[in-house]
Amino acid sequence: MTKLPKLREELALHPGTTSFDGSPTWIIHDPVTNRFFSIGNSAFEILARWIKGHAEHIVRSVNRETTISITIKDVEELSIFLFKNELTVPAGEAGVLRFLQSMKNRKKSWLLWLFHNYLFFKIPLFKPDYFLSGTIKFFRWAFSRWFLYITLFVLFAGVFTVIRQWEYFVSTFLDTFSWNGLLQFTLSLIIIKIVHEFAHAYTAKQFGCRIPSMGVAFMVLWPMPYTDMTDVWKLQNQKQRIAVAAAGVGSELIIASWATFAWCVLPPGALNQVAFFLATTTWISSVTINMFPFLRFDGYYILADWIGIENLHSRSFAIGRWWLREKLFDLRERPPEHLPQNRARFLVFFAFLVWVYRLIFFTAIALVVYHFFIKAIGIILFLAEIAWFIALPIASEFQQWFYRRNTIAKRKRSLFTASIIIFLIFLGLVPWKGQITVPAVLGAEKQISLVAPTAGRLIDFPSTGGQLVKKNDIVVSLENPDLDHQLFLANTKIIRTEYELEASQLGSSWKKQTQTLLVALEKLFAEVALIRERKEQLIIKSPIDGIIVDIDPTLNHGQWIKTGQMLATLRSREKARIVAYVDETQVHNIETGRECIFFLETGNHESIPCKISIVERVARRKLEDISLASIYGGSIPVHINNSDLVMDKAHYRVIIKLGANTFSLRTQLRGIVRISTPKQVPLAHLFKFILAVIIRESGM
Question: What phi, psi does 318 have (nearest 5°)?
């Protein structure tokens, strides 16, 4: 007969919530480790007879006295579960040895311990239970219906007002993108998260739970406050558990509602600004982080309690992995647990959603960590996080496939799956004729940028593009009062010097200064000539017959223009050409003489055949063809630096000649160029790209 180990005497058993199928659940509380374990009705009936000491006696008793049917295997599985979680007393020397071996297996190497604690660790700061018990009476109004109704009214009023002045709200939000704004957002977030955790604590205390500790948790060295709410597992009422889980988000939404309303009604000033930062921070924090159930934040616990599935992630992952193996290999294994069909489908769908979300989320965290640390350490931490959060779970699943390799080899569906994988690999190894699409402009072959040769104030310029000009026609007129003043002073000095020179002829005392006056007069005439030359530069004339295009849209009458500032572009009326801008990662695929097709963004021509003429070998950061800039509706991301359009990524300029359809243009036309590239092996191209990134980022 199978003898069972004794249960630890200090364990406590509490009624749990009702399961989704209506059956009762129970909670085992381990007061030593303060851990809680949920069990079903069958496990409860087995534990209720555990004192019988033998699995056979328990099976007969349960099957005879209840409507539940169990087997010896069920009792043994529960015994293994209790042993693994250290809920039994080690029996005899063999039991003690097994316990010691289990403890030894749990010990981590110092390297693994350091890595795990870098990823996540907690620092308890204080034990708040006594403080919460003494102060909860001051916050009972926050749980009242009248406060809820007032907050809902304030929320609707605030949202309605924000919608009416949405443009002002957005512009105010964009104005906060600065170091000062970042500091204020950080302070707001700290305050909100502290309120968030106390909302959890006070709500749990309202339902009689104990709060053993509060402190700071670090996830990949990112600090966040936490509250130990393991006692919430004792709550039998599902609504109470949901209320505790939702209290943090609820407190943030309350702050957001009142802060939004305050921003709408308060006059401009410090309080208005504080309300704005509190409102935006809470809305962003609640919606983008806490409400998602894909990580173990509030949204996860709300969803788990709402649908009545504890350990939602682990159970959905188990179902998801089982479903994947069945679809790929038809293993015909029993599912990890028996669930209604709709619920099982939901768990499979949820598991895949979590996997995709975590893939994106943890990759983003790894990139952030990489950029925040020095390069050598950043690369190590990046690879460590990718290995732990992404590669390790995938390797674990492959390991399960390896364990089942004999069964997999016998299934016909495995052959079909292998055929698809081989076919995909074959597609990745076959050279494919490639093509790339890049932004381009169709314009005159000859073009001249009109820039300010000297600083001045704008008094006349063409307001719209497309104007025809002839050679030496005035295009832009500037004025510079400082030059006018300098010219006036110089002319005044000339008049005075000429008078002194005439006076030197009247007396012997003046004659000694004649030579000095002549030299001074010569310098003054040279100064006047230089000033006049600079004033002439303020009148910008057309050097060719052409068309004015690409006028800087920020120009205004009376605006001061700095030296070298681009004002407009002058294009000749000769035959057209295409100028394309190719990203630095694609330029190696482009060769001169390659055929291409230009597609107009607008216009009467659907497509224009063309051929690569010149591929520049020096990357450009300044964008000369402003119509391609993202801020003017183009597709090349740029930012403004000292009035220059600087591309976010370096681009190479490609000059393209038109085919037979050559024509002259009055304006510049924007579009795209589709360029044929040499045949490429997709997997080789991917390998080269990854290798290039590694070499570039490692500095090799």
Answer: -60, -45
Residue closest to 350 by CA, chosen among 388, 309, 390, 385: 309
Q: What would the CATH number be for the domain defined by 437-444+574-680? A: 2.40.30.170
User: In degrees rounded to 5, what are phi and psi of residue 451?
Assistant: -120, 155
Q: How far apart are CA 230 and CA 216, in angstroms?
A: 16
**DSSP secondary structure, 598-616, as one string:** EEESSSS-S-EEEEEEEE-
Q: Which of 182-196, 494-508, 554-568 has the lowest mean pLDDT?
A: 494-508
Per-residue pLDDT of 231-255, as tens digits, reads 888 888 888 889 999 998 899 889 9
Q: Spell out the residues 6+ positions from residue 266 whose beta carbon is closer than 8 angstroms to its own.
A: 272, 275
Strand-by-strand arrangement of the 35-39 sheet: 12-18, 24-30, 35-39
In the chain, ranges of CATH 2.40.30.170 domains: 437-444+574-680
Which pair of structure tokens corresponds to residue 112? 């693994």
Q: Report the distance separating Cα 322 and Cα 327, nearest Å.
A: 9
| Residue-wise pLDDT tens digits, 651-673 | 899 988 887 655 555 567 888 99
Q: What is the number of residues in the chain? A: 700
Q: What is the pTM of this model?
A: 0.65
CB burial string 365-382: b at 16+ within 10 A, e below: bbeebbeeeeeeebbebb
